[in-house]
Specification:
It is a single chain. This protein is of the alpha/beta class and 341 residues long. Helix content is 26%, strand content 23%. Helix 8 links the parallel strand 7 and strand 8. The longest helix is centred in the first third of the chain and has 13 residues.
Protein backbone atom coordinates (compact mmCIF):
# COMPACT_ATOMS: atom_id res chain seq x y z
CA UNK A 1 0.00 0.00 0.00
CA UNK A 2 1.40 3.42 -0.93
CA UNK A 3 1.71 6.20 1.65
CA UNK A 4 -1.09 8.39 0.26
CA UNK A 5 -3.56 5.49 0.35
CA UNK A 6 -2.44 4.62 3.87
CA UNK A 7 -2.93 8.24 4.94
CA UNK A 8 -6.51 8.17 3.63
CA UNK A 9 -7.12 5.06 5.72
CA UNK A 10 -5.80 6.97 8.74
CA UNK A 11 -8.00 9.93 7.83
CA UNK A 12 -11.07 7.68 7.70
CA UNK A 13 -10.18 6.27 11.11
CA UNK A 14 -9.96 9.78 12.57
CA UNK A 15 -13.40 10.65 11.19
CA UNK A 16 -14.94 7.84 13.23
CA UNK A 17 -13.91 9.48 16.52
CA UNK A 18 -14.68 13.10 15.62
CA UNK A 19 -16.48 14.69 18.55
CA UNK A 20 -15.34 12.12 21.13
CA UNK A 21 -11.71 13.03 21.85
CA UNK A 22 -11.56 16.62 23.13
CA UNK A 23 -9.52 18.25 24.38
CA UNK A 24 -7.23 15.89 22.44
CA UNK A 25 -7.25 16.00 18.63
CA UNK A 26 -9.06 13.30 16.62
CA UNK A 27 -6.02 11.56 15.13
CA UNK A 28 -5.95 8.50 12.91
CA UNK A 29 -3.01 6.14 12.42
CA UNK A 30 -2.22 3.01 10.46
CA UNK A 31 0.78 0.70 10.50
CA UNK A 32 2.20 -0.99 7.41
CA UNK A 33 4.52 -3.94 7.84
CA UNK A 34 7.90 -4.14 6.12
CA UNK A 35 6.19 -5.45 2.97
CA UNK A 36 3.75 -2.52 2.88
CA UNK A 37 0.70 -4.46 4.05
CA UNK A 38 -1.80 -2.75 6.36
CA UNK A 39 -1.53 -4.50 9.72
CA UNK A 40 -2.85 -2.00 12.26
CA UNK A 41 -5.37 0.85 12.51
CA UNK A 42 -6.09 3.17 15.41
CA UNK A 43 -7.83 6.42 16.30
CA UNK A 44 -7.60 8.60 19.39
CA UNK A 45 -9.58 7.28 22.34
CA UNK A 46 -11.52 9.66 24.62
CA UNK A 47 -9.32 11.84 26.85
CA UNK A 48 -7.19 9.71 29.13
CA UNK A 49 -7.22 6.73 26.76
CA UNK A 50 -4.61 5.58 24.25
CA UNK A 51 -3.61 7.74 21.32
CA UNK A 52 -4.06 6.61 17.72
CA UNK A 53 -0.47 5.41 17.25
CA UNK A 54 -0.57 3.24 20.36
CA UNK A 55 -3.79 1.52 19.26
CA UNK A 56 -2.49 0.96 15.72
CA UNK A 57 0.77 -0.48 17.04
CA UNK A 58 -1.13 -2.69 19.47
CA UNK A 59 -3.15 -4.15 16.60
CA UNK A 60 -0.05 -4.59 14.44
CA UNK A 61 1.90 -6.38 17.16
CA UNK A 62 5.34 -7.70 16.11
CA UNK A 63 4.60 -6.97 12.46
CA UNK A 64 5.21 -3.29 13.15
CA UNK A 65 8.97 -3.91 13.46
CA UNK A 66 10.72 -2.60 10.37
CA UNK A 67 7.46 -1.19 9.07
CA UNK A 68 5.90 2.25 8.58
CA UNK A 69 3.54 4.23 10.80
CA UNK A 70 1.27 6.67 8.96
CA UNK A 71 -0.33 9.33 11.17
CA UNK A 72 -2.58 12.31 10.48
CA UNK A 73 -0.88 14.44 13.16
CA UNK A 74 2.76 14.51 14.25
CA UNK A 75 3.28 12.02 17.11
CA UNK A 76 3.46 13.69 20.51
CA UNK A 77 6.73 13.76 22.43
CA UNK A 78 5.41 14.64 25.87
CA UNK A 79 3.90 12.72 28.77
CA UNK A 80 0.38 13.80 29.67
CA UNK A 81 -2.34 11.40 30.77
CA UNK A 82 -0.56 8.87 28.55
CA UNK A 83 3.06 8.37 27.57
CA UNK A 84 4.69 9.92 24.50
CA UNK A 85 3.73 8.35 21.19
CA UNK A 86 7.28 8.86 19.95
CA UNK A 87 8.49 6.38 22.56
CA UNK A 88 5.79 3.88 21.60
CA UNK A 89 6.95 4.06 17.97
CA UNK A 90 10.57 3.59 19.00
CA UNK A 91 9.70 0.65 21.24
CA UNK A 92 7.76 -0.98 18.39
CA UNK A 93 10.80 -0.78 16.11
CA UNK A 94 9.19 0.98 13.14
CA UNK A 95 11.64 2.09 10.48
CA UNK A 96 9.65 4.99 9.01
CA UNK A 97 6.98 7.44 10.12
CA UNK A 98 4.79 9.39 7.68
CA UNK A 99 2.91 12.45 8.99
CA UNK A 100 0.30 14.72 7.41
CA UNK A 101 0.27 17.76 9.73
CA UNK A 102 2.85 19.04 12.22
CA UNK A 103 1.66 19.42 15.81
CA UNK A 104 1.54 23.20 16.48
CA UNK A 105 1.50 22.95 20.28
CA UNK A 106 4.57 23.72 22.36
CA UNK A 107 4.12 20.72 24.65
CA UNK A 108 3.54 17.99 22.06
CA UNK A 109 5.17 19.39 18.92
CA UNK A 110 8.61 18.36 17.80
CA UNK A 111 7.96 14.63 17.80
CA UNK A 112 9.23 14.29 14.25
CA UNK A 113 12.66 15.56 15.27
CA UNK A 114 12.75 13.21 18.26
CA UNK A 115 12.17 10.31 15.89
CA UNK A 116 14.78 11.54 13.41
CA UNK A 117 17.33 11.90 16.19
CA UNK A 118 16.66 8.25 17.07
CA UNK A 119 17.41 7.14 13.51
CA UNK A 120 13.87 6.76 12.17
CA UNK A 121 13.10 8.14 8.70
CA UNK A 122 10.32 10.74 8.91
CA UNK A 123 8.30 12.36 6.14
CA UNK A 124 5.98 15.27 7.00
CA UNK A 125 3.32 16.84 4.77
CA UNK A 126 1.67 13.87 3.05
CA UNK A 127 -1.88 14.95 2.11
CA UNK A 128 -1.50 17.81 4.60
CA UNK A 129 -4.18 20.03 3.05
CA UNK A 130 -6.71 17.21 2.79
CA UNK A 131 -6.11 16.12 6.37
CA UNK A 132 -6.15 19.67 7.76
CA UNK A 133 -9.57 20.23 6.17
CA UNK A 134 -10.93 17.02 7.68
CA UNK A 135 -11.56 15.96 11.29
CA UNK A 136 -8.53 17.91 12.52
CA UNK A 137 -9.86 21.23 11.19
CA UNK A 138 -11.51 22.43 14.40
CA UNK A 139 -8.63 21.34 16.64
CA UNK A 140 -6.00 22.96 14.41
CA UNK A 141 -8.14 26.10 14.14
CA UNK A 142 -8.49 26.30 17.92
CA UNK A 143 -4.73 26.02 18.36
CA UNK A 144 -4.16 28.82 15.84
CA UNK A 145 -6.76 31.21 17.27
CA UNK A 146 -6.40 30.45 20.98
CA UNK A 147 -10.15 29.91 21.36
CA UNK A 148 -12.71 27.25 20.41
CA UNK A 149 -13.47 26.82 16.71
CA UNK A 150 -16.95 28.15 15.91
CA UNK A 151 -19.33 26.83 13.26
CA UNK A 152 -22.48 28.87 12.70
CA UNK A 153 -25.35 26.69 11.55
CA UNK A 154 -28.60 28.13 10.25
CA UNK A 155 -31.62 27.04 8.25
CA UNK A 156 -33.47 29.50 6.04
CA UNK A 157 -35.87 29.81 3.16
CA UNK A 158 -34.65 30.86 -0.26
CA UNK A 159 -35.39 34.48 0.66
CA UNK A 160 -33.32 34.26 3.85
CA UNK A 161 -36.08 33.90 6.46
CA UNK A 162 -35.44 31.77 9.54
CA UNK A 163 -39.13 31.74 10.54
CA UNK A 164 -42.50 32.98 9.37
CA UNK A 165 -43.98 36.31 10.41
CA UNK A 166 -45.93 34.60 13.21
CA UNK A 167 -42.72 33.06 14.59
CA UNK A 168 -43.33 29.50 13.39
CA UNK A 169 -40.16 27.79 12.17
CA UNK A 170 -40.77 24.03 12.30
CA UNK A 171 -39.93 22.76 9.85
CA UNK A 172 -38.15 24.95 7.31
CA UNK A 173 -36.02 22.10 5.98
CA UNK A 174 -36.82 18.46 5.34
CA UNK A 175 -36.06 15.35 7.35
CA UNK A 176 -32.72 14.51 5.74
CA UNK A 177 -31.35 18.01 6.29
CA UNK A 178 -32.47 17.91 9.92
CA UNK A 179 -30.75 14.55 10.34
CA UNK A 180 -27.54 16.12 9.06
CA UNK A 181 -27.81 18.75 11.79
CA UNK A 182 -27.74 15.97 14.36
CA UNK A 183 -24.57 14.67 12.71
CA UNK A 184 -23.06 18.15 13.10
CA UNK A 185 -24.00 18.25 16.77
CA UNK A 186 -22.36 14.89 17.29
CA UNK A 187 -19.06 16.21 15.94
CA UNK A 188 -18.71 19.20 18.29
CA UNK A 189 -18.02 19.69 21.98
CA UNK A 190 -20.70 22.30 22.65
CA UNK A 191 -23.93 23.64 21.14
CA UNK A 192 -24.58 27.32 21.83
CA UNK A 193 -27.84 29.27 21.66
CA UNK A 194 -29.19 32.48 23.10
CA UNK A 195 -32.00 32.63 25.62
CA UNK A 196 -34.28 34.01 22.90
CA UNK A 197 -34.07 30.71 21.04
CA UNK A 198 -34.81 28.80 24.25
CA UNK A 199 -37.91 30.92 24.91
CA UNK A 200 -39.15 30.79 21.32
CA UNK A 201 -38.48 27.16 20.39
CA UNK A 202 -37.69 25.28 23.64
CA UNK A 203 -35.04 23.13 21.86
CA UNK A 204 -33.43 20.14 23.55
CA UNK A 205 -30.12 20.61 21.66
CA UNK A 206 -29.14 16.95 21.89
CA UNK A 207 -27.90 14.51 19.27
CA UNK A 208 -30.83 12.32 18.27
CA UNK A 209 -29.80 10.00 15.44
CA UNK A 210 -32.47 8.53 13.25
CA UNK A 211 -33.43 4.86 12.94
CA UNK A 212 -30.53 2.63 11.99
CA UNK A 213 -27.90 5.06 13.22
CA UNK A 214 -25.81 4.34 16.34
CA UNK A 215 -26.31 6.33 19.51
CA UNK A 216 -23.70 9.07 20.02
CA UNK A 217 -20.64 8.30 22.12
CA UNK A 218 -21.46 11.36 24.19
CA UNK A 219 -23.74 14.39 24.06
CA UNK A 220 -22.25 17.86 23.48
CA UNK A 221 -22.35 20.44 26.25
CA UNK A 222 -25.44 22.64 25.92
CA UNK A 223 -24.68 26.34 26.38
CA UNK A 224 -27.26 29.10 26.78
CA UNK A 225 -26.15 32.72 26.57
CA UNK A 226 -28.53 34.44 28.97
CA UNK A 227 -27.62 37.81 30.46
CA UNK A 228 -31.00 38.38 32.09
CA UNK A 229 -31.66 35.06 33.85
CA UNK A 230 -34.69 34.21 31.72
CA UNK A 231 -33.94 30.54 31.03
CA UNK A 232 -36.94 28.66 32.49
CA UNK A 233 -36.26 25.98 35.06
CA UNK A 234 -38.48 23.63 33.05
CA UNK A 235 -36.87 24.28 29.67
CA UNK A 236 -35.95 21.15 27.71
CA UNK A 237 -32.37 22.38 27.58
CA UNK A 238 -32.24 21.85 31.35
CA UNK A 239 -33.29 18.20 31.24
CA UNK A 240 -31.03 15.29 32.19
CA UNK A 241 -30.21 14.28 28.62
CA UNK A 242 -26.96 16.28 28.60
CA UNK A 243 -24.98 18.76 30.66
CA UNK A 244 -26.03 22.41 30.39
CA UNK A 245 -24.30 25.64 31.36
CA UNK A 246 -25.90 29.09 31.34
CA UNK A 247 -23.46 31.97 30.75
CA UNK A 248 -23.91 35.72 30.78
CA UNK A 249 -20.63 37.02 29.30
CA UNK A 250 -20.09 38.65 25.88
CA UNK A 251 -19.28 36.18 23.02
CA UNK A 252 -15.51 36.41 23.26
CA UNK A 253 -15.54 35.80 27.02
CA UNK A 254 -18.01 32.95 26.56
CA UNK A 255 -15.55 31.23 24.23
CA UNK A 256 -12.72 31.61 26.70
CA UNK A 257 -14.92 30.23 29.49
CA UNK A 258 -15.73 27.23 27.32
CA UNK A 259 -12.07 26.77 26.45
CA UNK A 260 -11.30 26.48 30.15
CA UNK A 261 -13.79 23.61 30.26
CA UNK A 262 -11.86 21.76 27.53
CA UNK A 263 -14.20 22.76 24.69
CA UNK A 264 -12.44 22.81 21.32
CA UNK A 265 -15.38 23.15 18.91
CA UNK A 266 -18.69 25.00 19.19
CA UNK A 267 -21.82 24.79 17.05
CA UNK A 268 -23.61 28.14 17.12
CA UNK A 269 -27.33 27.46 16.67
CA UNK A 270 -28.76 30.66 18.08
CA UNK A 271 -31.00 33.18 16.40
CA UNK A 272 -30.07 36.05 14.07
CA UNK A 273 -28.95 38.46 16.80
CA UNK A 274 -26.54 36.04 18.45
CA UNK A 275 -25.13 35.00 15.07
CA UNK A 276 -24.67 38.65 14.16
CA UNK A 277 -22.80 39.33 17.39
CA UNK A 278 -20.35 36.48 16.74
CA UNK A 279 -19.83 37.56 13.13
CA UNK A 280 -19.30 41.19 14.11
CA UNK A 281 -16.56 40.04 16.50
CA UNK A 282 -14.90 37.90 13.82
CA UNK A 283 -15.59 34.76 15.85
CA UNK A 284 -17.13 32.54 13.16
CA UNK A 285 -14.75 30.10 11.49
CA UNK A 286 -17.20 28.16 9.35
CA UNK A 287 -20.77 28.65 8.15
CA UNK A 288 -23.10 25.75 7.42
CA UNK A 289 -26.33 26.95 5.85
CA UNK A 290 -29.34 24.80 5.00
CA UNK A 291 -31.46 26.50 2.35
CA UNK A 292 -34.99 25.31 1.66
CA UNK A 293 -36.82 25.94 -1.64
CA UNK A 294 -39.52 28.00 0.04
CA UNK A 295 -40.43 31.69 0.08
CA UNK A 296 -41.97 33.57 3.02
CA UNK A 297 -41.57 37.21 2.09
CA UNK A 298 -41.68 38.24 5.74
CA UNK A 299 -40.45 37.05 9.12
CA UNK A 300 -37.12 37.22 10.96
CA UNK A 301 -33.95 36.97 8.86
CA UNK A 302 -31.29 34.34 9.41
CA UNK A 303 -28.80 37.06 10.39
CA UNK A 304 -29.06 40.49 12.02
CA UNK A 305 -26.73 43.01 13.61
CA UNK A 306 -23.49 41.77 12.08
CA UNK A 307 -21.98 45.26 12.01
CA UNK A 308 -22.25 45.65 8.24
CA UNK A 309 -23.37 49.12 7.16
CA UNK A 310 -22.34 49.15 3.51
CA UNK A 311 -21.59 46.61 0.81
CA UNK A 312 -17.85 47.12 1.15
CA UNK A 313 -18.08 45.86 4.75
CA UNK A 314 -19.81 42.62 3.76
CA UNK A 315 -18.38 39.48 5.34
CA UNK A 316 -17.02 37.64 2.31
CA UNK A 317 -17.04 33.86 2.44
CA UNK A 318 -15.47 31.13 0.34
CA UNK A 319 -17.93 28.47 -0.83
CA UNK A 320 -16.30 25.09 -0.21
CA UNK A 321 -19.13 22.54 -0.40
CA UNK A 322 -22.60 22.24 -1.87
CA UNK A 323 -24.63 19.15 -0.95
CA UNK A 324 -28.24 18.31 -1.70
CA UNK A 325 -30.47 16.80 0.98
CA UNK A 326 -33.74 15.98 -0.69
CA UNK A 327 -35.09 19.31 -1.90
CA UNK A 328 -32.82 21.28 0.44
CA UNK A 329 -29.24 22.40 -0.17
CA UNK A 330 -26.44 22.55 2.39
CA UNK A 331 -23.75 25.17 1.84
CA UNK A 332 -20.44 24.99 3.71
CA UNK A 333 -18.48 28.24 3.67
CA UNK A 334 -15.42 29.65 5.39
CA UNK A 335 -14.06 33.20 5.66
CA UNK A 336 -12.29 34.13 2.46
CA UNK A 337 -9.59 36.01 4.34
CA UNK A 338 -8.01 35.95 7.78
CA UNK A 339 -9.92 37.78 10.48
CA UNK A 340 -8.68 38.70 13.93
CA UNK A 341 -9.36 35.88 16.40
Amino acid sequence: MDEATAMRHALAASARVLGATSPNPPVGAVVLDAAGELVGTGATAPAGGPHAEVLALREAGPRARGGTAVVTLEPCRHTGRTGPCTQALLDAGVARVVVACPDPTAAAGGGAQVLRDAGIAVRVGVLADEVAAGPLEAWLGAQASGRPYVTWKYAATLDGRSAAADGTSRWITGESARADVHRLRGEVDAVLVGVGTVLADDPQLTVRPGPGHPAPARQPLRVVLDRSGRTPAGARVRDAAAETVVLAQPPREVLHALQERGVVSVLLEGGPTLAGAFLAEGLVDRVVGYVAPALLGDGPPALAGAGVGTITDAVRLRLDEVTRFGDDVRLVLRPGHDREA
